[in-house]
Amino acid sequence: MSAWFLFSSMGFYPLDPVGGEYVIGAPQVPAATIPLANGKTFTMKTENLSVNNLYVDKIELNGKPYDKKTISHKDIMDGANLVFYMTDKAEE
Length: 92
Known about the structure:
The protein is mainly β. It is built from 2 helices and 8 strands. It has helices spanning 2-9, 73-77; strands at 12-16, 21-24, 31-35, 41-47, 55-61, 64-65, 70-72, 80-87. The chain has a 5-stranded mixed beta sheet. Strands 1-2-7 form a 3-stranded antiparallel beta sheet. A hairpin with a 5-residue loop joins strand 3 (31-35) and strand 4 (41-47). The chain is globular, with a radius of gyration of 13 Å.
C-alpha cells in the first residue's frame, strides 16, 4: 500500500503491475525525482498546486502536450519530465 500511495502522490499509479501502464491521476506533491538504474532520471512537477487547485488542467511530457490517460513504464524508464498544470475547476 505504501508504494501505491507514493505513486499516487506523484500523479500516477500502476493499473496492472504486469501490464506496464500507469493511470494518470492528480498529484499531491509539488515535485519528485526518481533516479533510474540506467543513469537517467524521471521527474514530475506540478504547477499551481495549492489547497484550492486540486484538479489537473493539462499535462506535458517532455515539454509537449500529453492527453493520454496512462503513461507507460517505458516512458518512465527512458527518463522524462512530466509536468501537471493544476486548476481549481474539475473537468466538465
